[in-house]
Automatic annotation (TrEMBL):
Protein's name according to its UniProt entry: Gamma-glutamyltransferase
Domain of life per record: Bacteria
Species annotation: Gordoniibacillus kamchatkensis
Length: 535
């Protein structure tokens, strides 16, 4: 089997990294190296992914935390497995509360938007089912960085400072534990400055020693419960004790000879698949033409209109994944793409802040893993004495009583974080993913088309300039996006804005595997402090 279309070099781009023994790629070099160390100690790709993920909660705390959620796609023994470790709303979280208190939307900061964190349970579940090393060994690099400290890297330092400015401006005693933990000198740490968190280290050690039981049914759960009772939040130890991550069947579409896989709802990966299902029926002459970009943008707009209308907790969806991914519905939506930009609206199918990492070992195991607490530093709530920064995924809920994603007790909200994976003819090609809110399914579409449609290697697929749809006919393009194409898109009716930097265009990673030789080909995001650790 020949995967040349995904592995061959692309002229004038940075070079892809090749290796055979194993590979880990993520947006922070220390975390990538932590995962590689697990491979060298005899662990597998799953151990490497957990070690990297845990390390990222320390070395990239603005984007993810122990108090966040995770999703994973795991290829092992010739099969792809999905893990949904997003947590539901607490039992006390309900629409009436927000209506009675006059909220138009769920606030981003404070105790109210916090849902049950799934990340510690994800590590434990992955380790128990597929890992080779003890969880205590796998979390040790993260514990050491928290105890001894690490020098803050450039991109992370930038967003750490932004988080500090936002949270300190709230001027509320509720956020004092955050300030003591992440700004102990009254400011964000400088780039290159050492930062350490003994509380974080102690919490990670407790999770490691108890296989995450302390977080959901032990001492950490008691501390979380006490904090929310004292400060008027919804979360309780009973919510934590009731939580278990879900093993799910991944969903996919067939695109140009390859199968592209995502986690099913409540994640927004379905949006990427809807868009690809539309695009596979269209013709493309070349990558950098106005027609190519126009068709991609229109397909993404249509997919988002459906996703934002229908995606929520699967138990509350009023259409099925199969209906949204049917060829008949794809053809119906495809027919709406004309020469001018459209205003996207949801169709009517017939009834019938985040980190990403990829890991692979020399045995063929591969992992696509993403975790987040949403936004820079999530809710801004740190449980005193633990270093645990809590997510604010409750902001994903609607307060419209008629919307499928309306807030309700024990419900999973529309979720932005999505890992991706590609297979061909029943064999793994490999993991890919991009972090950063609503850009994620848009970037998935762009990367898949770069790699499969236009034959770019992993690094080139990531390097290529990106666009992102904002709303209605409005799109934003990166500073390096070709100006002549931006002008041509404007003539087609798109409202085009050029960003001053690439901060909101996502940070992604890719690993492809050649099944004949076992050679791994990795790319890492040029928009971050990324690294490909390999041997």
């Amino acid at each position: 089997m020949n995967y040349d279309s995904l592995l061959n070099p692309y002229p004038s781009q940075r070079m892809t990294t090749y290796a055979r023994g194993g590979m880990v790629t993520t947006a922070q070099p220390l975390a990538a190296q932590a995962g590689l160390d697990m491979l060298k100690k005899g662990g597998n790709a799953i151990d490497a992914a957990i070690a990297t993920a845990a390390c990222l909660t320390v070395v990239e705390p603005n984007s993810n935390s122990i108090g966040g959620d995770s999703f994973a796609l795991v290829w092992t023994d010739g099969k792809l497995h999905g893990l949904n470790a997003s947590g539901p709303s607490p039992a006390a979280m309900n629409l009436a509360y927000f209506q009675e208190h006059g909220y138009q939307s769920i606030p981003a900061y404070g105790v109210l938007p916090v849902t049950v964190p799934g990340t510690p349970a994800a590590w434990a579940a992955l380790s128990e089912r597929f890992g080779r090393l003890p969880l205590a060994d796998v979390l040790q690099p993260a514990i050491e960085y928290a105890e001894r400290g690490f020098p803050v890297s450039p991109t992370i330092g930038k967003y750490w400072d932004l988080g500090f400015r936002n949270i300190s401006a709230l001027n509320d005693a509720l956020f004092e534990p955050w300030l003591r933990t992440f700004a102990p000198q009254g400011r964000a740490p400088f780039i290159g400055e050492m930062w350490r968190s003994p509380d974080h280290a102690a919490t990670l050690r407790s999770i490691a020693e108890t296989n995450a039981e302390s977080f959901y049914r032990g001492e950490l759960a008691e501390r979380i419960d006490a904090f929310y009772r004292e400060n008027g939040g919804f979360l309780r130890k009973e919510d934590l004790a009731a939580y278990k991550p879900e093993w799910v069947d991944p969903i996919h579409v067939h695109f140009r000879g390859y199968d592209v896989w995502e986690i099913p709802p409540n994640g927004q990966g379905l949006i990427a698949l809807i868009a690809l299902n539309i695009l596979k029926g269209l013709d493309f002459d070349a990558k950098d033409t106005v027609e190519t970009y126009h068709k991609q943008i229109e397909a993404v707009k249509l997919a988002f209109a459906d996703g934002l209308r229908f995606i929520t907790d699967p138990a509350c969806m009023d259409v099925t994944v199969e209906q949204l991914l049917s060829e008949a519905y794809a053809q119906e939506r495809r027919s709406l793409i004309q020469q001018q930009a459209l205003l996207p609206e949801a169709g009517e199918p017939q009834k019938s802040g985040t980190v990403y990492l990829a890991a692979a070992d020399g045995e063929g195991n591969m992992v696509s893993f993403i975790q987040s607490h949403a936004g820079d530093f999530g809710s801004g709530i740190v449980i005193p004495g633990t270093g645990i920064c809590m997510q604010n995924r409750g902001t994903g809920f609607s307060l419209d009583p008629s919307h499928p994603n309306v807030v309700a007790p024990g419900k999973k909200t529309y979720h932005t974080i999505i890992p991706g994976f590609i297979t061909k003819d029943g064999e793994a090609v490999g993991p890919f993913g991009v972090m950063c809110g609503s850009i994620q399914p848009q970037a998935h579409v762009q990367i898949v088309m770069n790699a499969i449609q236009f034959r770019l290697n992993p690094q080139a697929a990531l390097d290529a300039p990106r666009w992102r749809w904002i709303k209605e006919k409005m799109i934003e393009v990166e500073p390096q996006f070709p100006d002549h194409i931006a002008q041509a898109l404007a003539r087609k009716g798109h409202i085009v804005q050029r960003a001053l930097d690439s901060g909101m265009f996502g940070r992604g990673q890719i690993i492809w595997r050649d099944p004949a030789s076992g050679v791994l080909a990795g790319g890492t995001e040029p928009r971050a402090d990324g690294a490909v650790a390999s041997w």
